[in-house]
Specification:
Number of helices: 6
Strand order of the largest sheet: 1-2
Structural class: mainly alpha
Order of helices and strands: HHHHEEHH
Strand content: under 5%
Shape: globular
Distance between the termini: 14 Å
Number of strands: 2
Oligomer: single chain
Radius of gyration: 18 Å
């Protein structure tokens, strides 16, 4: 999970969304956020995310809804402006219509794929370094899970 967080911080459009939420604005807030993420991941792995009556499924749906809410909120706030190099450094859309932020998709499928690969990519590439000793079929099952 720590590697996934670093991955998110190193991609500017992912970092922009993380900063927008304000839930990582202080060490205490960041700790609370990432402990919550770790708990959710444990619940997903230990529970049955496919059973609509399970806590694991409810947690996945909660996260999905949170992502949707944040995507709508940041899109609404950024509509009509483009982001500069710093969060909150917006230019008027009229100054460069070609790069107008109103067409930008926040938390896109591409963003989600980057985030998921940050969570599982290292494990898939080097499972033994994470204490995971399994066969190819089990790794394929893990990919399916994600």
């Amino acid at each position: 999970q720590f590697l996934a967080v670093l991955g998110g911080f190193s991609v500017s459009h992912l970092l922009e969304v993380l900063l927008f939420t304000g839930k990582s604005s202080s060490p205490e807030q960041a700790m609370k956020r990432y402990i919550s993420t770790a708990r959710r991941l444990m619940l997903w792995h230990d529970g049955d995310v496919w059973d609509v009556n399970s806590k694991a499924h409810a947690s996945v749906m909660t996260v999905r809804n949170m992502h949707g809410q944040v995507a709508r909120a940041i899109t609404k706030k950024r509509k009509g402006s483009i982001t500069g190099s710093e969060p909150g450094d917006n230019k008027d859309c009229k100054s460069d219509v070609k790069e107008c932020g109103s067409d930008r998709v926040f938390i896109s499928q591409y963003d989600m794929a980057l985030t998921q690969s940050a969570f599982i990519g290292f494990v898939l590439l080097h499972p033994e370094k994470f204490g995971i000793f399994c066969n190819i079929a089990e790794l394929e099952d893990y990919i399916f899970f994600w």
